[in-house]
């Protein structure tokens, strides 16, 4: 098997998609579960303005990232792939969280070849710049845009907030075990 370069989103992909929910519930006095989150924009489920959500986010973001739980089987599968493929993490996290993010990867022992925080959800230029062969994502429009613009397969980690129809190069995976099977079939 030829070594491939995997582009991988972090939040909601490597980390559990429900990571933010306990923090949101505590602060906003809600009782949400992952099944209540029907769109990526969290302010809708919370019933607050985008502005209020992002004010809250700016304060709590670093702590949430530092404490984030891994998605089930992500560590095991990424570790299996570390000798076979290059693991390039491309995240919309703000660039000032690079040290915090690298510390989290080292603490959780999630293998990586490169970590890039781009501070925007538009990952297309980073995907092209790093010549990524396959991308893993949880944000629906990102997955479809990367598949279309970069003409590469994308594995969309299935969540209640990304249920719209997908581009023909986007493959839904209900979990990391399913993602592994999709990768095997694609390669």
Please render the helix and strand layout as text.
Layout: E1 5-8, H1 21-28, H2 42-46, H3 50-67, H4 74-81, E2 86-91, H5 98-108, E3 114-117, H6 124-129, E4 134-137, H7 140-150, E5 154-157, E6 170-173, H8 176-186
Parallel strand pairs: 1-2, 1-4, 2-3, 4-5, 5-6
Number of domains: 2
N-end to C-end Cα span? 8 Å
Strand order of the largest sheet: 3-2-1-4-5-6
Tell me about the largest β-sheet. 6 strands, parallel
Query: Which ranges are low-confidence, i.e. pLDDT below 50, for 5 or more consecutive residues?
Result: none
Helical content (DSSP H or I, runs of 4+): 40-55%
Our count of helices gives 8
Shape: globular
Instruction: Count all strands and give the number.
Output: 6
Q: Any idea of the CATH topology of the largest domain? A: Rossmann fold
User: Which architecture of the largest domain per CATH?
Assistant: 3-Layer(aba) Sandwich
Order of helices and strands: EHHHHEHEHEHEEH
Strand content: 5-15%
Indicate the mean pLDDT: 96
Written overview of the protein:
There is one protein chain. 42% of the residues lie in helices and 14% in strands. By secondary structure, the protein is an alpha/beta fold. The protein folds into two domains: 129 residues, HAD superfamily/HAD-like (Rossmann fold); 47 residues, no CATH class. It has a six-stranded parallel sheet with strand order 3-2-1-4-5-6, sandwiched between helices. α5 links the parallel β2 and β3. α3 crosses α5. It is globular. It starts with a strand and ends with a helix. 32% of the residues are buried. The mean pLDDT is 96.
């Amino acid at each position: 098997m030829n070594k491939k370069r995997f582009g991988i989103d972090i939040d909601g992909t490597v980390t559990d998609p429900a990571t933010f929910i306990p923090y949101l519930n505590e602060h906003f006095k809600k009782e949400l579960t992952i099944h209540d989150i029907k769109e990526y924009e969290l302010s809708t489920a919370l019933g607050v303005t985008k502005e209020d959500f992002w004010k809250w986010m700016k304060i709590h973001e670093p702590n949430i990232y530092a404490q984030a739980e891994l998605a089930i089987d992500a560590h095991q599968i990424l570790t299996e792939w570390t000798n076979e493929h290059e693991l390039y993490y491309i995240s919309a996290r703000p660039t000032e969280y690079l040290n915090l993010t690298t510390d989290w990867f080292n603490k959780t022992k999630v293998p990586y070849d490169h970590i890039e925080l781009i501070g925007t959800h538009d990952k297309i230029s980073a995907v092209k710049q790093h010549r990524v062969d396959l991308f893993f994502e949880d944000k629906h429009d990102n997955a479809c845009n990367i598949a279309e613009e970069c003409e590469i397969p994308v594995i969309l980690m299935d969540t209640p907030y990304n249920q719209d129809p997908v581009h023909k190069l986007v493959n839904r995976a209900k979990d990391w075990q399913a993602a592994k099977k999709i990768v095997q079939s694609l390669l």
